[in-house]
Specification:
Blueprint (H helix, E strand, L loop, with lengths): L1 E6 L8 E6 L5 E6 L12 H4 L1 H5 L9 E3 L5 E3 L2 H19 L6 E3 L7 H14 L4 E3 H4 L7
Parallel strand pairs: 6-7
Antiparallel strand pairs: 1-2, 2-3, 4-5
């Protein structure tokens, strides 16, 4: 077992953490890093529960596609991305770029990867339809 300094990748603050790893490099425990200047030992429940989520028996470890009977079958990442791109292209070609919108709310709003990818995807498509809990829950003023 060994301890390493790292950071949490779940959300935007990237809290400083200390990881306890087993001899195979698997996470055993996550603790807030008290020496981290920004987070000073704080880590939320999502970060602290990382070992359980990484070792969960129902964790998805490969790209899956839903079949007609509702079950899932493994497919390659390349095939999945090609099929998604084809469906998006069909929507954009048939209904225009504004037919594609993204909503990020609750935990998804602060998802570290999603926060940067969502606007880039919409820019590439040519849509400005990005919604969050901030845009949905707020009144709009005409002034």
């Amino acid at each position: 077992m060994r301890e390493v300094k790292s950071f949490c990748r779940f959300c935007i603050p990237f809290c400083g953490v200390r990881l306890t790893l087993d001899d195979d490099g698997h996470m055993i425990e996550v603790r807030g890093d008290k020496k981290d200047m920004m987070t000073q030992g704080y880590a939320c429940i999502k970060g602290l529960q990382a070992p359980a989520s990484y070792s969960a028996p129902d964790r998805i470890l490969q790209t899956l596609k839903r079949t007609d009977d509702g079950s899932f079958k493994p497919i390659s990442l390349e095939q999945a991305l090609d099929e998604i791109a084809e469906k998006l292209r069909g929507l954009v070609d048939g209904y225009g770029p504004e037919s594609i919108g993204l909503f990020q709310g609750a935990g998804g709003l602060f998802n570290a990867i999603g926060a940067s990818i969502a606007p880039s995807l919409l820019d590439a498509i040519g849509s400005h339809k990005r919604f969050t809990t901030y845009t949905i829950d707020q009144s709009e003023s005409d002034s």
